[in-house]
Amino acid sequence: MPLYDLLFKPENSLVVQSRHARMGVEAINGDGFGLGWYGAMGTPGIFRSTEPAWNDRNLLEIATQSVADRVFAHIRASTGTAIQQTNCHPFRHGRWLWMHNGAIADFHEVKRDLALAVLPSLFPDIEGSTDSELFFFLALTFGLEQDPPRAVAAAVGLIEEVGRRHGVQHPIQMTVATTDGETTWVFRYSSEGRSRSLFHTVDISTLREQYPDNPVIHELSDDARLVVSEPLGSLIGAWEEVPESTCLVLRGGRLASHDFSPTRARAMA
Amino acid sequence: MPLYDLLFKPENSLVVQSRHARMGVEAINGDGFGLGWYGAMGTPGIFRSTEPAWNDRNLLEIATQSVADRVFAHIRASTGTAIQQTNCHPFRHGRWLWMHNGAIADFHEVKRDLALAVLPSLFPDIEGSTDSELFFFLALTFGLEQDPPRAVAAAVGLIEEVGRRHGVQHPIQMTVATTDGETTWVFRYSSEGRSRSLFHTVDISTLREQYPDNPVIHELSDDARLVVSEPLGSLIGAWEEVPESTCLVLRGGRLASHDFSPTRARAMA
Amino acid sequence: MPLYDLLFKPENSLVVQSRHARMGVEAINGDGFGLGWYGAMGTPGIFRSTEPAWNDRNLLEIATQSVADRVFAHIRASTGTAIQQTNCHPFRHGRWLWMHNGAIADFHEVKRDLALAVLPSLFPDIEGSTDSELFFFLALTFGLEQDPPRAVAAAVGLIEEVGRRHGVQHPIQMTVATTDGETTWVFRYSSEGRSRSLFHTVDISTLREQYPDNPVIHELSDDARLVVSEPLGSLIGAWEEVPESTCLVLRGGRLASHDFSPTRARAMA
Amino acid sequence: MPLYDLLFKPENSLVVQSRHARMGVEAINGDGFGLGWYGAMGTPGIFRSTEPAWNDRNLLEIATQSVADRVFAHIRASTGTAIQQTNCHPFRHGRWLWMHNGAIADFHEVKRDLALAVLPSLFPDIEGSTDSELFFFLALTFGLEQDPPRAVAAAVGLIEEVGRRHGVQHPIQMTVATTDGETTWVFRYSSEGRSRSLFHTVDISTLREQYPDNPVIHELSDDARLVVSEPLGSLIGAWEEVPESTCLVLRGGRLASHDFSPTRARAMA
Question: Contact A65/B57, CB-based, under 8 Å?
Answer without folding.
Answer: no
